[in-house]
Queue: 3 jobs
Job 1
Amino acid sequence: MKELPEGKSLGWMQAPASWIDSHTVRFIGVVRVVIQDGEGFILIKKGKPLFHYFKHGTIELKGHTALDYFNSHPVIEFNLCKYTPDEFTWAMKLCNIEDHDRVVPKEPAVPGPVSREHIPPARTADSPVAKPAGDTRIPDPVMVSPPVHMVDKRAVVTGPVYREHTPLSRMTDPPVTKPAGDTRIPDPVAVSPPVHTVEKRAAVSGPVSVEHNLPSRTAVPPVAKPAGDTRIPDPVAVSPPAHTVEKKEVVQQPVVGDDPEVTIISQIRDLEGIVAIAVFNDNRNIIMMGDADSEVLVKIARKMLETAKKITPLLPWGPFVHMTIQIPAGNMIIAPYHDNYLCLLTTRTINIGHIRRILRDLQQKGAPQRVS
Amino acid sequence: MLKKILNKFLILHDVRGVIVIRVDGGIVESIKSGMEYDDAFMAAVSTLMVGSKATADNFDNAPAFMVFMEFPDYFLLLAPLKEEFYLLVIAQNTANIGQINQEMKKNKEDLVALL
């Protein structure tokens, strides 16, 4: 795979892969993903992922397989890089995607709306995909035979059908092997033609990624799962579903995305003296930008939050607005931010007055809720 | 004598209370003006001290730390005096933090000498 244009970096973040789809509605560019020693990307046009790619050593994952790999990680680290129209066109070319805003697959064209989960017949014969060695989180490739009228209630995309739509030819793809020992990658699942089954799954609202496999995948050689990767589940044999309808619970996610909020967060990150910024809640780290070990940062932030939550009800002063701990190396700040919390790590060049000003500005822009 | 020094903080504009607290949350000395130190308040103060110490211990070398916690109308400012002792200032948001910090610098030596 040739190197894609660099683009303009909006910053590194950590979030679930599903977050990317739902938060890049106005984003055109590439999301560079780093997982362990491997690197990859998702080419995105206004919330629609056009191409997924991941490479670990000599192993390459493309399309659905790469997406599955990204999704197999609860959180991935990525960098949003904005493209100019020229850069985007060039990237499309490199990914072998035709851009007419309406990209028609070379193989059988699918007229009308295409549901996200529309699994093209070709997938039965998915070419073998390899997953990075030692990565046990990658589900094994699932071989699906041509589904008939698969409806995914998560979201239906009308209009453009992307090249990732797997062509029928994929049925003839060679079997997929996974790297030895990688249990994360589910082994291929042989699925016979779907028969209108209803699958209830949680889905994320927002931009729909029409994740069909690229026609080019037909020619992709079998890929093996990296050796020792126990996260890749072994193949599962599935009986033929017919007219599979996926009924997925729609989980509304706050649109933070490329748009206003990510921009605001990255603007704060760019302020002088800000080392790192994170948005987190009790359970997970939602956004992370900057130069810091996100896990350590959020661990400390949670400790501060724990203290703040213990103190607040004991005082008759209402909700806490922010808490800053200053150590010789810098400042660590937490503050309520919408339904989550914001964590800032700064150098000592920023004083409390400056921090208060930043938080006040942020509250005016984002109207964060306060914790009582 | 300790109270006399603490009073220098209390007379600052919109400062409502000053407490010398041990790192384990124990109160050494306290003065106040226009507010009450009830049990809940003292529990909150101790929790802030102990919780902040636990947080700071996550950093390398468990450094001395300063904590600023803001509420809609009040704030708490916790600053180190010496290893085991901290000074807590309770003030309204309209108080001048720079002035409080300056007073801390001016009186730190005297305070430490009395602990």
Note: Residues 39-56 of chain B form the longest helix (18 residues).
Job 2
Amino acid sequence: MIGGLTRFRSLEMSCTGNPNQSYSFESQGVFNAPEISPMALYTRVFGPEFADPNAGPFTPDPRLMLRQSVLSAVKDDRDRLFQRVGTHDKQRLDQYFTSVRQLEQQIAILLEGPPDLQSCSKAPAPGAESLGTEVEESVSTNRLMADLLSFALACDQTRVFSMMFSDRISGLRQAGSSAQHHQLTHDEPLDPAIGYQPEATEFVFICMEAWADFVERLAAVPEGDGTLLDNCLVFGHSDISLAKIHGITGIPMMIAGAAGGALRPGVHVRGHTSPTTRVGLTIQQAMGLNTESFGTQSMEATQPVSEIVA
Amino acid sequence: MLSRAATAVGASFASVTPSGLEKYEAAATAVAEQALDPTHRDDLVQCQPASVTSSDEGCARAFVERVGRRLFRRSLTEEQASARVAIANEAANTLNDFYAGLELVLTSVLASPEFLFRVEEAEPDPSNPSTMRVTSVSMASRLSYLLWNTTPDDDLLTAAENGDLVDEAGLAEQVERLLASPKLETGIRSIFSDLYDFKQFDDGLVRKDNALFPVYTQALVEEAKEQTLRTIVAHLGADKDYRDLFTTSESFLTRRLGVAYRVPVTTANGWEPYVFSEDARREGLLSHISFNALYSHPGRSSATLRGKFVREVLLCQDIPTPPANVDFSIVEDTIGELRTARERLEQHVTNDACAGCHTLTDPIGLALESFDAIGMLRDEENGVPIDTSGELDGVTYEDAAALAQGAPLPVRFGAWMWGCGMNPGRWNPTTEGVGYDLPIELQ
């Protein structure tokens, strides 16, 4: 709904070097594969197809219109198949059809020419990349991708994005160490002097610094009277609270940006026993969706977090 | 149809996402450009256009019908062929390039759901009208993907379109031909690459710490994978029992692998057949570097991942996901370093919520602890001797070799093949999956 008007319905990114894990799902069990390489992300958004507003007069590529003919033939094939298959396969073909429509829309937007936005310019190519599970690699990938994303948002190439900093069951590790973040959360004893697991918690610190890197990059782009961040809503969270026990109560959740004025920044709210879905509901309403409730059963939320609603 | 996908990461549910299709179309375009560039086009186009700078309907139609049939695994309908000839003509005249027109045609075939999905059709069986049979044309794809892991060749398609594959003798003839073909090796390699999830090696996802494992290089990884596949192909090719793959000491090595296995390899370049000695502790596929490196972390081995693989994939059993909000109070007080995997995992087994799964996975995985995170042999971890003994389903063993000899590991391949292996995501020409179910009126 939010992504429907732009060249990319959404952009998925990951710093883990693993294309098989994502925060973005089409439906249960079907995820949208993330970009894991900053260079690949750059090529996809700012490659030859990108209409650069500073590159002189725009002439549409005739191949774009021919690609429309290709997609038309493909849709006819889909219609023929649709008549011949059962219910489950119809669902698959529906998904396929939606994807073809999205691609058609992408071509239509490309044919319109460069975005007419003051803050839009073509991103410079990203610097050298190194993909892997060492935490410093993730930190570096996060910076490179946040930078590219800020240009993509400024040019309205997409309005929806996700970034995975560490994979589920975090495989982050320090170079030269045999222990991964996840293993440390289970195996490392608490240091009684500080009250937490020092090595495991170091990864949490680095992760939070990376979140700050990401948000600051969006705040560095001027837009209107404020910044790009003022017009964004960036939601950051962990899938557990205390990793050692797979804790799912008291999960820290953060929102940066004011969503164009819909949210009040700088507020801390204790959730107490509220379901986490209240945050999801608040976000959907702040983004202009007409959503009354979110989640099911004990996780059903009908009240947004009013303390942060402007 | 079974949806469990122990062996089909990313393909457990057949679907084409928007970003997936966007990237797929770009890839199809690149393939089409390459296939029709000046150095390759004559292999694919069996006619010469009247002019390379404009349309040629006859040559375009011949291309559409021949290449379309191979990729759709059946003849195109008249509408499908005509629509594509029209694309070829429009594009050739717009771009002043006959072959650019064919590129777009080829892209339209590769991006079609008829290519991306494998659709099986059924029909009432005339000899027993109350039951259904797979149509002759659908059977061609079923055979060629199972045995060759690719589309049917021209002979098979012709037999299929003549109706030969719903006839027992005609079917047997084609099966014999496919089995006798050198392409059978491709099919065997594909089944076992999927079974062991070797795609993770190809995708560069099996990373190890350089400082801890300097022997581990991309070249070693590729040879380790190849070693296992060669072992399987040679074993099955010699008509030996599948189950003996888990105990055989016969394999193939390169000199580079010899360094990691710490055995002498005389051949300087390339492969040689190799039989591990009795005391080498290298018996069966579960002692291979490929398996042990894949089911490990970047810095250390993982008894849990290895045990989970054996349970889920080889034995076709379910392992539940880890529970939330575990009461770890028993182990909270642990002071002192846990030095071996057994010490670390025993902490889990003391807790009921964890023990449910870890008692399934760990006894198998702990027997393999003599193989480190890249599958090299070791006797100690952090200075403590490794205990590889255990019990599985009532059978006790001292180490991995005894586990493979005594435990019921290998006998379940049949169950895997039909229970886990024949999942719908497995049999498809792309990474996106395949659909199988019947129209309601035929069910």
Note: The first strand of chain B starts at residue 122 and ends at 125.
Job 3
Amino acid sequence: MAGRMSSATCSTTSMPPDIEAIAEQVFIALADPTRRSILAALASGGPATATDLADRLPITRQAIAKHLSLLAEVGLVTAEHGERRRVRYRLRSAPMQMAQQFLAALARDWDARLDALQVHLGR
Amino acid sequence: MGFPDRIERTVELDHPQTKVWAALTTAEGLGAWFGDQATIDLRPGGTAQMAWTSGDRAEMRVERVEEPTIFGFTWHIYGLPEDDPRRTYVEFTLEPNGAGTRLTVTETGFAQLPEDAHSKAFGGNTDGWAHELGDLLDYLDAA
């Protein structure tokens, strides 16, 4: 549980945030093809119930519910309680954006840029 | 896992410092090796822009200009939303090395967080705890 973990290790709001733990949770979530398809469906179609998702994806409602609860635990989706006790799940982008910073560092590619500089100077 | 906050590279260039400085700090230079096109207002607070034929663009804010040794700018973190305030800082350091130049580039700030990101990422959980602990202290103080 991301939330519990953070409150257990920190006693004030100014503690160093564990960006690495968040990024790791995102990558673990994305490593599974079913969870990727659930996240993709929420990203493209907006908030949905487990039943909605089961109609759209070739996965049982039970399996979807199991994955949704894991995704909610790590903060990638949030459960909204709507009418008639229907729970809709909504994508949360904040943890994704932290993982993106990790990817951005890998994608900066200064090696290729400095090679290009050397080629430029050599002319 | 190891979250990289800082990238650093050093290269030895067989070219004089003034020539390397021009390649890094002029529109002609930046447009030749970095972007496909560039503009630059070379002063702290000035804006530099680069465009690529792919359609990608980058806007930089010039932060440090100490000719011919230090050129620093900040720019957006690729992949984050346009309005995200986080930026990384890139600094080029040029040192003469014989007839050539030792060029070091560092880029820092990949692991930074905006002020509200932590509570955003954790759904406000930690704020909740701080709030509750504050309430407890108030209660104990009053007791």
Note: Chain A has one domain: 2-122.
